[in-house]
Hints:
Elements: H1 5-8, H2 14-17, H3 20-24, H4 38-52, E1 58-62, E2 68-70, E3 73-74, H5 81-87, E4 95-99, E5 105-109, H6 116-120, H7 126-132, E6 137-140, H8 144-154, E7 161-162, E8 165-169, H9 175-180, E9 189-192, H10 196-205, H11 209-232, H12 239-252, E10 263-266, E11 287-292, E12 295-296, E13 299-300, E14 303-308, H13 315-333, H14 341-359, H15 367-372, H16 376-379, E15 410-413, E16 416-418, H17 421-428, H18 439-443, E17 450-452, E18 455-459, E19 474-476, H19 477-480, H20 488-506
Parallel strand pairs: 1-8, 5-6, 8-9
Antiparallel strand pairs: 1-4, 2-3, 4-5, 7-8, 10-11, 11-14, 12-13, 15-18, 16-17, 18-19
The chain binds manganese (II) ion.
Amino acid sequence: MQLGFRALMDPLRPARAASLESLLDAPAGVELPRVVPLAQQCRELRGKLRGELLAGGFVWLASGDLVTRNADVHHPYRPASDFFYLAGVAEPGWGCLLDLETGAFTLVAPRVPEDLAIWSGPRPSLDDVASQVGADAAIYSEDVKGLLEAKASASNGGGGSSSSGLMVHTLEEMAPALAAAGVDGEGSVRLTTDFLPAALARSRGRKTVAEIACLLEANRVSAAAHEAIWRSCRPGCYEYQLEAAFVSSCMGAGLRQLGYPAIVGSGRNAGVLHYDRNSSVVGRDDLVLVDAGAEFRCYTADITRTFPAAGAFTAQSRAVYDLTLAMQTAALARVQAGADWKADVDAPARRLMLEGLSGMGLVRGDIEAMLTARVDRIFCPHGLGHHLGLDVHDTSDTGAVPATLEAGHVVTVEPGVYFMPLLVQRALANPEQRDFLNAKELEGWMGLGGVRIEDNVALMPAGVKGGGEGAGGVLNLTAAAGAAPKAADAIEAVMAAGAAAGAARQR
Ligand SMILES: [Mn+2]
């Protein structure tokens, strides 16, 4: 079904239309960011955080402990994001101290019983870990108190030290680990949680090129893993078997952990936003929505693709798919430094969705009136995206939802069109919304579940070679990954090749 979405796109900035294709693929002439040694990456981030905390004193962060799964079994370990950001260490029970005056960085290791080596193998040597992440020293936790008290008595006035003591900046959830090392905020070492949360949010919200390189690496592996699912999908399999194909592809490529539980929803499950039961049988006529991403150095990709289980879109599923892709194309074209997320990126995509649904005969009436009545929210109840980094819903000064886009921001762009029974039923019972819906026609679309298409986009920091401010500096990390194409025809082609290879193996 041709609905003429291109004509509906109405770019806010006509000049940008010419470079639209460059947003969909790796922009020509843009040098892709490269992963740098971990020590270099962390040293730069420590310097950046120091710039956010103008006063002196120390920063204390802790890696966090193993989390119990059941009895004496633990979940796979993942360090606290704020700790890993500065320290680059992925070991439970560690801490770190950043001297804000000198920049000296000290890792703090837990003292563990020697017998633990029998069960868990030898601990890494303190010096090895310190040199790997560019730390100036590594000490055991019993030496933390002495280090801080010596610093407090050596300093007299200025910076973070004064007659009232040495200031240690930390986060509420990380103070207990410091207390366990004998520093409880009484005496000459004072603790404060007033400044560090905002400083971390500001710093983490604007990525360095090295961090963007980590996200690109996560995207490379994750995009290829999405394709692996398309090639292996056979109707009649369980959703979790597609999840297994994703995990296998990521681990095979060297990335062991996902950034969040993989969402693999077929049929109506595709319309469940955070569906991760992944336990249904995939039907021949189903669309399958997969939202999954692996972590590289704890930086996660967050990619969504939707494909037809049997390898070919129907006219109906193709119409919804193409509409969603048109929404994403329109939103991507507006991602640039200075753009207002809600007005410039989110709103145009919603307007476009209502135009499309209207063309399909599913809604009717004036588009502006529908937006006022929040009819768009029936079919797309979530925002167009969020910040992305060490956390899948990453932190920034405005929280996970972007406000005004800036150089250094990395965001997801993820429009969706869903047919959720609960939301449609509610709308049909709502006098402000029901007249906009074509209930009879909608019935025939509910089995589709939904479509979401999600890419990760970096606004390259100013001064980066090949990037810089403005449109030229916007890099679609998922497109640059060179896998998991979005055009419906391209998806069908990958699936056809996968099916042919599978048949050849069977012969
Ligand atoms: Mn997302």
